[in-house]
Amino acid sequence: MNLLTRTALLASSLLAPIALASNAALEDTFRAFSHCDDQFFASLHTHSAAWERHVPLESAKNVSWIPVGSRAYVEADSVPLRHAPQVAGVKLLSYFDKSVDLDLLGNYLFWGFVVEGSPEKVAQQLRPLIDRGEQLVPAQGLLARAEVRKDGHWERVASPPGDAPGKSRLERVLILEPDEGSHGTRTRVTCTLQGAVDGAVMAEFRPDIPAEDYPGQPIPAP
Asked: Its domain of life (predicted)?
């Protein structure tokens, strides 16, 4: 064995534990993400060193988040992830974060990852990491875990309600669906808060969003 080979093997042996630790951190954060609440942003903060290898982060107090250009504009609501990080063998390609105010139909927040693979394959690989993964069921051409907020608690519903929640109902849904234009080769893994999303809801579940971006505030240009 020549010197170059020995050096390469030594470097590999030293880097392996670092890579394993990084993968464990990413998977821990994905578990937190699958709750579709503030746990994701706390985990990004805890594991910021692992995530900053792949995407820029911003932080405040005890939370971190992945900034996008603008939640209100499609052209600026996503960022690519460097070095193709993987969780449970699934490649994460980009992160998106968007908001839509549909007036009487309610406010909508969408955040999550575009990943490599079909929804069915991705669900099979990620299900062990997904909170209440057994509740992820086929619905209207996608896979979803749907909940409605009642009396301060989340209650599971069999599938996402077919009507718009409006201003009186708060829904939370984890969705796996084909990424537009990917012909089944990419999947969007999305958390949504929709309907009666007001400042109190955003402060509890989306601590990364500043008060000036709460519903009813003017939308800044990208």
From this structure: Bacteria
